[in-house]
Automatic annotation (TrEMBL):
Superkingdom of origin organism: Eukaryota
InterPro entries named among the record's database cross-references: CYB561/CYBRD1-like, Cyt_b561/ferric_Rdtase_TM
Known catalytic reactions: monodehydro-L-ascorbate radical(out) + L-ascorbate(in) = monodehydro-L-ascorbate radical(in) + L-ascorbate(out)
Protein name, as recorded: Transmembrane ascorbate-dependent reductase CYB561
Cofactor: heme b
The species this protein was found in: Gallus gallus (Chicken)
Record's keyword terms, sorted: Cytoplasmic vesicle, Electron transport, Heme, Iron, Membrane, Metal-binding, Translocase, Transmembrane, Transmembrane helix, Transport
One record GO biological process: ascorbate homeostasis
GO CC, one annotated term: lysosomal membrane
Domain named Cytochrome b561: residues: 19-220
GO molecular function per UniProt: metal ion binding; oxidoreductase activity; transmembrane monodehydroascorbate reductase activity
Length: 252
């Protein structure tokens, strides 16, 4: 059983989730506008293949990753099993899209004779992707695949939550590095003159920060966390008494 639904959504939670989605969609629209208006758009079988990289990374490593983190807040009244599956599915989709973006940049560099993995952005980007993949695999192993004990899941859960938020912040920071790198490559001489492309890219960077801050705020509000199930609370108490050398329900 998934247990009874938790109480109705706390005041303010729905508004913050709605703001996060508005910011996320604006973020994607701004990315598309930048690439379409100033970088020629996106086309796989052409020199424009590279432009799939920033679009995929913003969509996968920022927007979808952020939404996956918000699942347990936005759907706090839904069955936990369904929420858990949606959480894993969104993370998996984000990884798939990010992988597509990585292929795009490596193939584009190969076609143009540009070296790979020399910049700080590329190092951070590869680290973020590999750690995100590891986080997803461990999450599936502990929380979706049957077999992991409740005590083991309980011990791993705080680490899973912390690294989930940390990787989200790391992904946004890496995107900011990537935006700066693209601007320095393409408009190095005119960037300091407040040209429209530079201004739009700066707006994109601020939207990334704003999206991250709103998602982070929702995730760190203790009173907005989903209430634990009665079964989990009972198992937690049983585990505690067993580790203290007492039988569940015994005298103290």
């Amino acid at each position: 059983m998934d247990g009874a639904p938790s109480p109705s959504s706390p005041a303010g939670l729905s508004a913050y989730v709605a703001v996060s989605q508005l910011l996320g969609l604006t973020l994607l629209a701004t990315t598309g506008a930048w690439l379409g208006r100033y970088r020629g758009g996106v086309a796989w079988q052409s020199p424009l293949k590279f432009n799939a990289h920033p679009l995929c990374m913003v969509l996968g490593m920022v927007f979808l990753q952020g939404d996956a983190l918000l699942v347990y807040r936005a759907f706090r009244n839904e069955a936990r099993r369904s929420t858990k599956a949606l959480h894993a599915l969104l993370h998996g989709l984000a990884l798939l899209i990010a992988l597509f973006g990585l292929v795009a940049v490596f193939e584009s560099h190969r076609d143009k004779g540009i070296a790979n993995m020399y910049s700080l952005h590329s190092w951070c980007g590869m680290a973020a992707f590999v750690l995100y993949l590891l986080q997803w695999l461990l999450g599936c192993g502990f929380f979706l695949v049957p077999g992991a004990s409740f005590s083991l899941r309980s011990r791993y859960k705080p680490h899973h939550v912390f690294f989930g938020i940390a990787l989200f912040a790391f992904s946004i920071a890496t995107c900011l590095l990537g935006i700066t790198e693209m601007l320095l490559f393409n408009i190095r001489d005119s960037y300091s003159h407040f040209v429209p492309e530079g201004v739009l890219a700066n707006v994109l960077g601020m939207l990334l920060v704003a999206f991250g801050l709103v998602v982070g705020y929702v995730l760190t509000r203790d009173d907005w966390k989903r209430a634990p199930l009665a079964e989990e609370m009972a198992l937690s108490m049983d585990f505690k008494t067993l580790t203290e050398g007492e039988s569940p329900g015994g005298s103290q």
